Amino acid sequence: MNIHFLGTGEAADPSRRNTSVLIEMGDRHHLLDCGFSSAQAYLNRTTAACLETIWVSHFHGDHFFGVPQLILHFYIQKRKLPLTLLAGSSELKDKVNAAVELAYPELSSKLDFPLHFHRVRQDSEMACNGLFWQCAPVNHAQEAYGLRLTSDSHAMYYSGDGKPTPKCRALMRGCDLVIHESFSEVPEDPSHFSLEECLELAKNSTIEQLALVHLNRQTRQSVESKRDFLNEPGSTRIVIPKDGDELQL
Q1: Cα separation, 115 vs 95, whole angstroms
Q2: Which 3 state secondary structure label does DSSP give 154?
Q3: Is 5 in a helix, a strand, or coil?
Q4: CA distance 177 to 234
Q5: What is the DSSP string of 82-117?
Q6: Is the predicted pLDDT of residue 233 greater than 60, yes or no?
Q7: Which long-range contacts (CB under 8 A, 24 or more apart) does 100-106 make?
Q8: Mean of all residue pLDDT scores within the chain
Q9: What are the pLDDT digits (tens) for 80-111?
Q10: Are 28 and 50 in contact (CB under 8 A)?
Q11: How far apart are CA 81 and CA 139, in angstroms?
Q12: Chain segment 140-158, per-residue pLDDT in tens
């Protein structure tokens, strides 16, 4: 399982792409969130025909406004294979169809490939496209979900945006990798996690690796001035990925 960080930035960061993660398992690709700048990053990365699944953590623009661009690209390339879209929200189909219609009117009626929409329900595990998907709600400004992905040999968690609930923390247990947003340096925003809280999470968890993304500029500057904490002994390895970085599980 190769983890490629297409983007690691927050919504309005001019120096980073929106946070988006590509999971590569051989020639099977799964995309976690696809914001304003994420689609271009994916199309620059690889053959788009490999993409099987898009997970949408929530419907803020920096997490799903790139989906219409991907669908347009697939249409131009005459894609025939189905594309699966997953979310914890029951609004997934309506939201994606509305975004595509607004961006490219009547495109949906011209597609030569099917869009399959599935809701990943809380407290259950869904098998889809070679992986097992579980989600739990996070505390954010709108309905949003954290995701646990499990393959035959590895497990990872992706936060999207928001503070983790107890159910989210349960999904993180035993993961090889947790990718978590760390917007602010200290807890100051009720809808975002912080660097301080992420470090506490690492200290009191059984997570092997914790990758911090979606940092605002002030938080990133603070991290750069205090990088010693990344090398502190402990059970969790902490990384601050840049756009384009990769991890192998």
Answers
A1: 13
A2: coil
A3: strand
A4: 15
A5: -EEEEESSTTHHHHHHHHHHHHSTT-GGG-SS-EEE
A6: no
A7: 100/67, 100/68, 100/71, 102/68, 103/68, 103/69, 103/72, 104/68, 104/72
A8: 92
A9: 999 999 999 999 999 999 999 999 999 999 99
A10: yes
A11: 35
A12: 999 999 999 999 889 999 9
Structure tokens of 108?
């949906």
Task: Specify the amino acid at residue 56.
Answer: V
Residue linked to tokens 């993304």: 213
Structure-token pair, residue 95: 């939201």
Per residue in 31-87, pLDDT tens? Answer: 999 999 999 999 987 666 689 999 999 999 999 999 999 999 999 999 999 999 999
Nearest to 243 by CA among 3, 1, 2, 8: 8
Q: Under a CB-based contact definition with an 8 Å cutoff, are residues 30 and 53 in contact?
A: yes
Task: Give the pLDDT of residue 229.
Answer: 64
Q: Which residue has the tokens 């294979």?
A: 81
- Which 3 state secondary structure label does DSSP give 118? strand
Q: Tell me yes or no: is domain 2-243 CATH 3.60.15.10.
A: yes
Q: Could you tell me the sign of the dihedral formed by the alpha carbons of 12, 169, 23, 30, in that order?
A: negative
For residue 197, give the DSSP letter: H
Q: How far is the C-alpha of 187 from the C-alpha of 203, rounded, in Å?
A: 17
Residues near 26 by Cβ (< 8 Å), separated by ≥ 6?
Answer: none
- How far apart are alpha carbons 41 and 38 in whole angstroms? 5
